[in-house]
Amino acid sequence: MNNEIQLGEEFVNYYSELKQEIFTLKSISRIFGGASRETYRLSVLNKDLIETNLIYRRTQSSALIETEQLTEYSAYLAFQDSKVPVPKTIAIEESPDTLGAPFMVMEELRGAAASPFDQEAYSPYEEKLGHQFWDILGEIVLKDIDDPNLASIPRTESKESCWKRELDHWVKVIRQDSYSVEPILEAAIRELYRNYPKDSAKKCLVHGDYRNGNFLSKEGTLVGILDWEMAHIGDPLEDLAWAMSPIWCWKDRDRPSYLIKRKQALDVWQKKTQIKIEVESLAWWELFACVKGLAIWISAGHEFITGSNTDPINLFSAWIPGDIHMEIILETLEKEFRSR
Amino acid sequence: MKPDINIALMLCGQEIATRFLPLLKEEYDQSRLGSWGALTLLSSLQIDGAADNLNKENKLMLEWLTKTKSIINTEDLIQKVEEVESSQLSDIKISTLDLFNQKLRMIFVEIQEYLEDSEDSEYLKESWIILREMHGHRKVSHMLDLLKSDT
Fold first, then answer.
1. Strand partners, A24
2. ipTM of this model?
3. CB of A285 within 8 A of CB of A237?
């Protein structure tokens, strides 16, 4: 029996017990991409041969960015049956004792994910999906952060600034995992600490990785926002700047996440949130997005070169997106120094 | 002459993509092997110029560091620059050049920070020109189309 089938069989035993009904495994396949979790698509049958399609997400023994399963699961719970489409949650096990690693189970949503580097991924539905994508981000900003489902989501101490908490966190990741000195990145870090943004009047739920590639769509309808493992309470501009980053629209820079034009996107978001965007603050968060991105890519490279996870996605991340984020910083800071 | 390493890697990448990838049934295995094929191809395009690029980067940084010595008032920084100026590399292996490159980068960062604090714009502007050139040596983002990977 290969590893995948064995995982599937063990899972079905667990699932049968959970549902108090006998299920059998029809199929299991691993989904490629995303280095923080091992994600499997499973199909199970009950005694009447009725099929249920599930997503089974296991914590990797070596996760790229260490996050709690509970963070992601809490965000999904908070948005069940809401205007923010998410998969239906079924179960979470935080202990590795049950199936060898912490995991969560959700119903599978029918829709397609896309590569964030494919500029034609959403054609011909860019306009329709674009409005939904930025409007849903606004909905996330409006979410009540005192929702009990969000109690375990990481947040700042009351007096600490959101920008500082986030910047300190990602700089720490860079310091831990760097395998080379990057003067461009170091200059960006210094710039961010020197010219920090105003604190936002409002704190909100931040998805943490809101962008193309992290949602499912079906014929022009956005059916699910996924990958909430970096969710936290923070500044409303953080997700906006991350999703706007040129890395997610590298071949068409004025069409963030390869959806609608930047100005249109900002208008949709502002109309939904009623938050006036401070240009300088957004620029800070956009530069921060590059530093955070680089922390993630450096961490991926670290996993790869230390041999803890030689999935080629880690090498890819260190080479290509790392390179693009470096170039965005270079362009931003060159302009900055030329204007002085 | 024996076939070069870069040619061998290029053919390996192509063979992975065209011969072995179609034999796999599982989507995950296909994606993973496909990524290896593309990354091997990408490596083949980079390897030939790697030592030359490092050598050029090292010269650029070293020249700039030497120039900045005249306006630095910190003994410790001057000493660090003089140390790298007097370094003798034992060979021109990529690993040796890279190790020296890392030393230079470390001092480069310190002096850039020093210049930012002292608001010296001339040498700072020059440092950004050097960083642009260094980035140009290493960047692989223009080869994005080689890699059809879902992340």
1. A45
2. 0.92
3. yes
Which domains are delineated in chain A?
3-107 (3.30.200.20), 126-338 (3.90.1200.10)
d(CA A252, CA A246) in angstroms, rounded, equals 8
Q: Quote the CA–CA distance of A297 and A325 in Å, as a whole number.
A: 9
The pTM assigned to this predicted structure is 0.93
CB contact, 8 Å: A116 with chain B?
yes
pLDDT band at A128 (very low <50, low <70, confident <90, very high): very high
Number of CB pairs < 8 Å for A and B?
105
Residue range A12-40, pLDDT digits in tens? 999 999 999 999 999 999 987 666 689 99
Cα separation, A325 vs A170, in Å, equals 14
Lookup: tokens for B21:
């990838």
Task: Give the SS3 label for residue B99.
Answer: helix
Backbone angles phi, psi at B44, to 5 degrees: -60, -30
Chain B CB contacts of A319 under 8 Å are 39, 42, 140
Six token digits for residue A159: 């007096």
Instruction: List pLDDT tens digits, range A292-336.
Output: 999 999 999 999 999 988 888 888 888 899 999 999 999 999 987
The 10s digit of each residue's pLDDT in A140-197 is 999 999 999 999 999 887 788 999 999 999 999 999 999 999 999 999 999 999 999 9
- Mark yes or no for CB contact A316/B135 under 8 Å: no
What CA–CA distance (Å, rounded) separates A263 from A269?
10
pLDDT digits (tens, 9 = 90+) for B134-149: 999 888 877 776 655 4
Q: Which helix (H) or strand (E) holds B35?
A: helix B27-47
Residues 6+ apart with CB under 8 A from A81: none
Q: Nearest residue on chain A to B139, judged by CA atoms?
A: A323
The pair of three-digit structure tokens given for residue A284, joined into one six-digit string: 């800070």
Give the B window 89-148 contacts with A, CB below 8 Å: 102, 105-106, 108-109, 112-113, 116, 121, 124-125, 127-128, 131-132, 135, 138-141, 143-144, 147-148
pLDDT above 80 for A62: no
**Distance (Å, whole) CA B85 – CA B83:** 5
Beta bridge partners of A27: A43
Nearest residue, CB atoms, B28 vs list A29, A117, A320: A29
